[in-house]
Amino acid sequence: MESWRGGGGPRGGARCRPLSFVSLSILAPALHVFFLSLIPALAFAQQMQVDTGGAVGTAQVLLSTSIFGVVQAVAGGQPLLIVGVAEPVVVVYTFMHVFAARVGIDFLAWAAWVALFAAAALAVLAAAGAASYVSQFTRFAGGDTFGAIVAALFVHAGVRIGASLFAPASPGADAGWAAADGAWSLFLASGVCCTALGLRSARSWRMGTAAVRGAVADYGAPAAVVLWTALSYAILSVHPPATVSIPRRLSVAPPWADTSFWRTAARMAAVPGWAVAAALPPAAIVAVLFYFDHSVSAQVALEVVRDAEGAGKTGKGKPDAYSLDLFILAATTLAAGLLGLPPTNGVLPQAPMHAHALAAAAGAADAAAERKAARRAGRQGASGEAEPPPGLDLFISLPRPLETRLAALLQALAVGAAAFAAPALATIPLGIIAGYFVFMAIEWVQPSQGVGVVRGL
Predict the structure, then answer these.
(1) Which of 51, 158, 206, 350 would staple 437 via disulfide (CB 3.0–4.6 Å)?
(2) Residue 351 domain-assigned (yes or no)
(3) What is the tens place of the pLDDT at every residue in 31-48?
(4) What does the pLDDT look like over 61-94, one tens digit per residue?
(5) Which among 256, 275, 257 has a CA at the least distance from the CA of 112?
(6) Which of 17, 142, 14, 35 is nearest to 82 (CA)?
C-alpha cells in the first residue's frame, strides 16, 4: 500500500495525485474521524471516571488516544487503522478497580502490571506469527458480525447515556428537574443525530453544485455538533439548590489538574507479590481482546483497499504488516501502563469508516477531474460515458483511498489538542454525546458516504 502518496496503481485504477492536492483532500476525512474518535473517548472517559473513582479521567483517555494514535499513524504497518480506548477496556478497568479497592492496593500501579503482562503476551503472539490466523476471519465473521455487535453497543451506549439524564443528578435532587433535563437532552440527541445523518447524505441532493454538496457532506456531522451545542444554550437553567446546569454537560478536567498518574511506574515496586500474580488473569483477558479487536479492525479497514484493487471480497489472505502492528500494540500497551494511561487498540467503527471517508474523498476527486476533463474535451464524459445525475456524484467504481497516514496523524493530534481544550469540551451536552453515538451506529451499518460500484448499472 502506498502510505504517504495518494492514488493507486494499475490495479486500483485511481490517479496518482500530488501530495499538495492530497493534503487538502484529507482535511474532511481527518475531521470526520476526529469526531468519530473524540465522542466515544469523551463518553467512555466519563464512564471510566465514575467507575474508577476518578483514578482514570478524561485527560488520560484523550492523551492515550492521541499519543498512541500518533505512534500507530507514523510507525504502524496498517495506516488505515485508528486506535482508541474501546468499551471493553472500560469494563475490564471497572472490575480491576473494584478488586484493587477491595484488597487495598494502588489501582494504577497494579493496572501497570496488568499492562506489562498483556504486552508480553501480545509480543509473544506477534513473534509466533499469530497474525497469520487473521486470514481465517471471513468478511462475514470478522467484519459484518463483529461490526453489528459494535453498532449495537454504540446504540446501547447512546440509550444508556440518554436514560441516565432522566435520573436526578445528585441524591435528593428534584425529580421534576431531572425529567426536564432528560426531555431537553432527548430533543438535543434526536436533533444532532437527524441533522448529522441528513447533512452526511448531501451528495444525494439535487440542489446546489457538486462542490457545495460535497462540502456539506464532508463537514456536516461536525457542524451538527457545533450547531446543536450552540442551540442547547437557548434553554439554560441551574438546578436548585445544587449548581447543576440544564442540560447536563460533560465534566472535563484539563491534563494539568492532576499529573500524579505520570509517576505510576515508580509505584509498581510497592505492589505486593501476590497482587502481581493476580494481574495475570486480567492481563490474559486484555491480550485476547486486543488481539481479536485490533486484528478485525485492521482487516475490515483493509477490505476497502482490497476492493479497490480487485483483490477479492472474501477477506482471505494474510494482510501485510500484521505482526508489526501486534508488536507496536504490545509496546503501546506497556507504555500506557507505565504512564498511568488506559491502553488503546484498533477500534470499530472508526477504522473502516476512516477508510471509507478517504475512499469517498478519492471518488469525489476523480469524479471532479472527469467532469473537468469532459468540459475541456467538449464531450460528455472523460471515458465517453454520460455524466452521472447530481445524486450520484460518488457512485463510481470504488477508488483506492486517498492519503492515509497523514489523515490518521492529523486526527490523533487533534484529539491531543482537545485534551487541553477542557472549557470548550465542557460546553457539549451529554444528550449530544448520546445522539452522536446513535448516528455513528447508523452510519456504520449503512454508510452515508455513498461509495459503491454502480457505474455499470
Answers:
(1) 158
(2) yes
(3) 878 888 888 888 888 888
(4) 999 999 999 998 888 887 778 888 888 888 899 9
(5) 275
(6) 35
